[in-house]
């Protein structure tokens, strides 16, 4: 039985294969319509979500399966003090696979030790979000035609942005990747990513606070939201929340084939005028999330 807790749980070959399957689903969705008939997905979301939860649910429905679950801790027995371990032990008797989001780092790992069925980490605190990373990789592969030889700018909240952490881990395994880390000093990349991955693996990177100065160098610009829910102090959030706002004016200096990604939800960090720019990929990216989750559900359920 396989779980997906961290993107590094998957080999590069497995990621490439998931991307191939997702591309095939996009081309021929009818071929997958009954693949999960009779199977049940439980979505246990202890934290808010739109894309991740609903794309998992849409994925299972499109595979012909069923969905059960909850979308907030308050509507589950967690509100009465039940532990994650007990919740998962019980739900794993009701479902064939579980997607779980939790505000505490490591909660899906704990769940995987108690579950009788595969656990998918759908986001744990500021730590990891591996299915967002699969979504990002599918988006990059489809928009750029490759996952190698790319200069990737990561902009915004690199400290609490779990999607950034998982994306760096994943992309560091491909050849010719350079990172440009754009953030205020207070929100820069945690040392366990910078030292243990970038430095350790000898991946080229630069750090800057100035988006406009580097935008012309980028093949991918991955914008992120400042993660209000992870701040201890509201004054700090208010001071930092509008550190970067991508506008058509700033994009004037960017490459014509830049791809702009954002895991969404967006707050202010990309102005709505940018949505009309052909380089804006973030709504396609949200759609691709459904297809890669279809591929992942089939893989973890060992469905051919
Ligand atoms: N990208 C993402 O995880 O979005 P949701 O929080 O809406 O699931």
Q: What structural class do the secondary elements suggest?
A: alpha/beta
| Low-confidence blocks of residues | none
Distance between the termini: 15 Å
The oligomerization state is: single chain
Largest β sheet strand count, sense and barrel closure: 5 strands, parallel
Secondary structure layout plus pairing:
Blueprint: H1 12-27, E1 40-45, H2 51-62, E2 66-70, H3 84-91, E3 97-102, H4 107-114, E4 119-124, H5 130-144, E5 150-155, H6 162-171, E6 177-182, H7 191-201, E7 205-208, H8 211-214, E8 220-223, H9 234-240, H10 248-251, E9 259-261, H11 282-300
Parallel strand pairs: 1-2, 1-3, 3-4, 5-6, 5-8, 6-7, 8-9
Bound molecules: phosphoric acid mono(formamide)ester.
The site of phosphoric acid mono(formamide)ester (CP) has 9 residues, from helix 2.
Q: What do these coordinates show?
A:
By secondary structure, this protein is an alpha/beta fold. It contains 11 helices and 9 strands. A 5-stranded parallel beta sheet has the order 7-6-5-8-9, covered by helices on one side. Strands 2-1-3-4 form a 4-stranded parallel beta sheet, with helices on both faces. It is globular and about 55 Å long. The protein binds phosphoric acid mono(formamide)ester (CP). The site of phosphoric acid mono(formamide)ester has 9 residues, from helix 2.
């Amino acid at each position: 039985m396989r779980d997906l807790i961290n993107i590094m749980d998957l080999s590069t070959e497995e990621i490439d294969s998931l991307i191939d399957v997702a591309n095939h689903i996009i081309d021929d969705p009818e071929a997958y319509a009954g693949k999960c008939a009779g199977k049940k997905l439980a979505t246990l979301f202890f934290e808010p979500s739109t894309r991740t939860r609903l794309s998992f649910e849409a994925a299972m429905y499109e595979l012909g399966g069923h969905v059960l679950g909850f979308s907030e801790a308050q509507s589950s027995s967690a509100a009465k003090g039940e532990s994650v371990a007990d919740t998962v032990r019980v739900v794993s008797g009701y479902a064939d696979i579980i997607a779980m989001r939790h505000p505490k780092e490591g909660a899906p790992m704990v769940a995987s030790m108690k579950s009788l069925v595969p656990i998918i980490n759908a986001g744990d605190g500021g730590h990891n979000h591996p299915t967002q990373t699969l979504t990002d990789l599918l988006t990059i592969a489809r928009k750029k035609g490759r996952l190698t030889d790319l200069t990737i700018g990561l902009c915004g909240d690199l400290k609490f942005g779990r999607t950034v952490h998982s994306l760096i881990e994943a992309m560091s395994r491909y050849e010719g990747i350079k990172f440009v880390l754009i953030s205020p000093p207070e929100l820069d990349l945690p040392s366990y990513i910078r030292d243990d991955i970038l430095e350790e693996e000898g991946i080229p990177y630069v750090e800057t606070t100035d988006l406009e100065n580097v935008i012309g160098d980028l093949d991918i610009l991955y914008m992120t939201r400042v993660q209000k829910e992870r701040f201890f102090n509201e004054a700090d959030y208010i001071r930092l929340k509008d550190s970067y706002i991508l506008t058509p004016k700033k994009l004037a200096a960017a490459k014509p084939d830049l791809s702009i990604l954002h895991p969404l939800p967006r707050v202010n960090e990309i102005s709505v005028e940018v949505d009309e720019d052909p380089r804006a990929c973030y709504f396609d990216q949200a759609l691709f999330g459904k297809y890669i989750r279809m591929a992942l559900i089939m893989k973890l359920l060992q469905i051919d």
